[in-house]
Amino acid sequence: MDVRAQVSMVFHLDKCIGCHTCSIACKNIWTDRKGTEYHWWNNVETKPGTGFPTLWEDQEKYRGGWERDPRTGKVRLKLQGKLGTLTNIFYNPYLPRIDDYYEPWTYDYENLFNAPLSDDQPTARPISMVTGEYIDTVEAGPNWDDDLGGSPVYADNDPNLKNLSPEERRSMQELGNLVFFYLPRICNHCLNPGCVAACPAGAIYKRGEDGIVLISQEKCRAWRMCISGCPYKKVYFNWFTGKSEKCILCYPRLETGQPPACFHACVGRIRYLGLILYDADRITWAISQPDEYLVEAQRSVILDPFDPEVIRNAKANGITDLMIEYAQRSPVYKFFKLWKLALPLHPEFRTLPMLFYVPPMQPVQAVQRNGVYETVDAGQEGLAPMLAALEKNRTPIKYLASLFSAGNEQIIREVYHKLIAVRIYMRFKKVGDVTPGDVQRALQLGQTTPDECEAIWRLTSLPTFEERFVVPPLAREMAVENQFPELDPERRNYPTYRAEVGFGFRKAPERRW
Amino acid sequence: MRTVDILLFVVFPYVSVALAVLVGLYRYFFDRFSFSSFSSQFLENRALFFGSAPWHYALLIILAAHIAGMFTGFWSRFIAPPSRLYPLEAFGAALGLSSVVTLGVLFVRRLLNPRIRKVTTLPDWLLVIVLMLQLAVGVYVALFYRWGSLWYMYTAVPWMISLAKFQPAIQYVTSLPWIIKLHYLGGFLLLAIFPFTRLVHVVVFPITYLWRPYQVVIWNIRRRFAPAR
Ligand code: HEM
Ligand code: SF4
Ligand code: SF4
After folding, report:
1. CA B125 to CA B116: how far, in whole Å?
2. Which of A15, A199, B42, B131 is the right S-S partner for A268, CB 3.0 to 4.6 Å?
3. Is A275 helix (H, G, I), strand (E, B) or coil?
4. B55–A90 CB contact, under 8 Å
C-alpha cells in the first residue's frame, strides 16, 4: 500500500446556477495576460452542448486520455506511443487549433468617442486580440452555446447523445420538455494524468504532497503533446509565450489556507474541497478495468482515512498526523467514497480524475392535458411517484451514464435513488406530507438511513465555508517543520533551498530571442 | 596565408563555436524559459503540415549525412561502390531541394499569415533567412560540383579536424571555389547564430522520454523518511 494524499474536489451540480462567476474569478487572477485571453481554466458548459473547446469529448477527433486494449486489458495513451511522439513532434496531427476554441477579441471602443459627427450611431467593431485586425463576424466565443443557444448546431452534436434513441433525443428538445444543466469544469488533477504522460519533455508533474498537477514553464519546450493528451482539454497553449499552461488549483492560495478563487467565489456554493488518501499501488489495476467497473475501481483506490492500517501506511509514507486529520474531515471523502453520491466525469478516459460531480436532480417529463400542465404520473399518489419517476427524467439515464459512469446506468440509478430518498425523507421531517411507508420505501431503494440522509442534507444545503473547504495544511514552512523535527533555524539545516520553492520567475515570461 | 583567410577559416569558426557554447550555456542557465521550439501550430495548421514535418525530416537526414561524412573511414567504405554513390548523390540533391521548398513554405507562411507574423521575432527572420541561403548554396554546390560526398572528406573534414586539434590547416579549403567556401562558412554562421535564435530547440530534443516512466511526481521535501521501495 503506497498511501498518498490528494487535494480533490466535488461539484454539486444541483446547485450550479450557471452564473460564470467562477470563470471570471479565475480569469481575473491568472489568465488576463496576452496569449491567455482564450484560456478558461475554469469554464461552465451547458449540457447538452458541444462544450469548450468544441466537441472536446470526442476523442476520435482529439485523441486525449487512455485507451484499453480489450484483448490484453493493457492501457495505452490514445494519442500515440512514445516513439510516435518523437516522430510526430514536428507536427502534431491531433492538436486543436485556436479556431476550435475561438479567436479572442475586444472592441474598438475608442471609435465610440472619436467617431466624426454623422447621421448614424458610431459602432465598436470587434478587433482580434491576436492580430489586432478587425474581425467582420465573430463566429465563436466562450459559452457560445450557453443555455442551449444555437441548439441545432451545438446541443444536437453533443457526443453524449450518440447512444440515445431518436425518440429520446426528440423528447429532450420538445418545448415544455426542454432540459439542460450546467457543467463547470476545471482541471481534474488526475491520478493518472494524460497530460503528464504525453509530455516528452517531462515538464508536467504531479506534486507528491498534494497531487496538484503543474506545468514547469522553464521546462516546457512547446512540443504541445499535453494539449492532445488531456482528454478534458484543460491544458491551454499560450500562443504568445509558446508555452502550455493549465489550472494550478490556486496553489499559492491553498498554501496560505485559502480555497481556490473559483471555489471561493462560487455563488451557488456548489464546490467542495478536501484531502483524500489513495493507494498509488492500485492505480494501474484501476485504470485497466473494463468501462462498466471504472467508477467502482476508482472508489476502491480511495482509502478510508479512519482505517488504522491506512493510517499506519500513511505515516510510514511521511504523511503527517495533521494531514490525516484533514483527510478524515474531507467533504470529498464523504460525497465520493462514503455516500457514493459523486461521480467522476468521463471515467472512460481513464485518467482517474479527482474532481467529482453530484449529478443534478432532473425535472420529470410533463404533458399538457386539457390546458393543464402536469408532470407525468403525478397527482394520484402524492409524492411517491418521485421514486418511480426516475425513468421519466427529462434527461435520460443513458445520457447521464455517458457523462458520469462510462455507460453504467445502474450506478446512475443508485445515485438518484439516494438523492430522491434524501428529499423524501427531509420532506417527511420538515413538511410532514409524506407517509412513513413512502419514506421507508424511499430509504430502502436509496440504500440509505435517516442519519445518512440528514448528514447529506446538511452538507448539501447548509454547509459553512469551513465545511465546504477543508483546506489541508499545505504551508511549506509548516510542511517542512512537521516532517523534520530536527530542523534548526540556527544551523539552517533545511532540506529545501530558496530557488526550489515558490514562484520562480526572475524574468518576464515572454519571448526575448 | 592571407589575413582574410585566417579571419574566415580560423578566427571565425572558433568565434562561432565559442558563441554557440558560451551564449548557449548562458541562455540555458539564465533564461531557460526561452529554450523552446516556439511552436506556432496552434495558430496555423495547414501550411505547417506541408512545411514543418517534411522540412525537418529532409534537414535531419542531410545533417546526419554531413556528420557521418566526418567519420572518413566508415564513410569512404560506405560510398565506395558506385551503385551506392550515385543514388546517394541523387537522393541528397532531392532532399536538398525539398528542404529548400519546405522551408520556403514556412517562410511564406510567416510572411503572409497575420497570426503567425504576430509571433515572429527578429531572430526568427534571421534564422530562416540564413538557413534558406545556406540550403540554396548547398543545393547549388550539390548540383554543379558533383561528388560532394567524396571531396567533402578531403576538404572540409580535415580542415575541421585540424581546427578541433587546435592546429588549423586551412590549405584544405582556401583554394576551393568561392561558392563552396561560402557553404562551409555558412555552417559556422549557423552555429554562431544558433544560441540567439529558436535553433536552441535542437539541443533539448526530448530523447529521455523513451525511457522515462509516463508519470512524473515531484516531492517538495526529499522523502528522507519514506520507506525504501
Ligand atoms: C532535433 C530535432 C528537432 C526537433 C524535435 C525540432 C522540432 C521543431 C518544432 C516542434 C518546431 C515548431 C513547429 C511548429 O511551429 O509547430 C520547430 C520549428 C523549427 N525548426 Fe526544428 N526541430 C529539430 C531540429 C531542427 C534543426 C536541425 C533545424 C535547423 C537547422 C531546425 C529548424 C527549425 C526552424 C527554422 C523552425 C521554425 C519553422 C517556422 O518558421 O515555423 N529544427 N522545430
Ligand atoms: S484534467 Fe488536468 S491533470 Fe487531468 S489530464 Fe487534463 S490537465 Fe492533466
Ligand atoms: S460560480 Fe458556482 S454557481 Fe456560478 S457558474 Fe460557477 S460553479 Fe456554477
Report:
1. 12
2. A15
3. strand
4. yes
Give strand ranges (E) for chain B. Answer: 217-218
3-state secondary structure of A383: coil
Q: How far apart are CA B194 and CA B63, in angstroms?
A: 15
Asked if A398 contacts A404 with a C-beta cutoff of 8 angstroms, the reply is no
- Expressed in angstroms, the distance from the first to the final Cα of chain A is 48
| Cβ <8 Å between B33 and A237 | no
Which helix (H) or strand (E) segment is A390 a member of? none
CA distance B150 to A250: 61
The per-type count for chain B, helices as H runs and strands as E runs, is 11, 1
The answer to whether the bond into B123 is cis (omega within 30° of 0) is: no
Residue A162 lies in a domain: yes
Domain that holds residue A234: 10-98+145-254
CATH of segment(s) B3-210: 1.20.950.20
In tens, the pLDDT along A40-82 reads 999 999 999 999 999 999 999 999 999 999 999 999 999 999 9
- Measured in angstroms, the CA of A216 and the nearest CA of chain B are apart by 9
> If contacts are CB pairs under 8 Å, which of residues 333-352 in chain A contact chain B?
none
Q: Can you give the CATH number for the domain in which A156 is found?
A: 3.30.70.20
CA-to-CA distance for A108 and A497, rounded, in angstroms? 48
Name every chain B residue with its beta carbon within 8 A of the beta carbon of A89: 206
pLDDT digits (tens, 9 = 90+) for A241-287: 999 999 999 999 998 889 999 999 999 999 999 999 999 999 999 99
| Ligand 3 within 6 A of CB of A260 | no
For residue A509, whether the previous peptide bond is cis, meaning omega lies within 30 degrees of 0, is: no
Question: Which residue pairs from A492-497 have beta carbons closer than 8 angstroms and sit at least 24 positions apart in sequence?
Answer: A495/B221, A495/B222, A495/B224, A496/B220, A496/B221
Kindly report the number of other CB atoms within 10 A of residue A203's CB atom.
23
A235 lines ligand 2 (CB under 6 A): yes
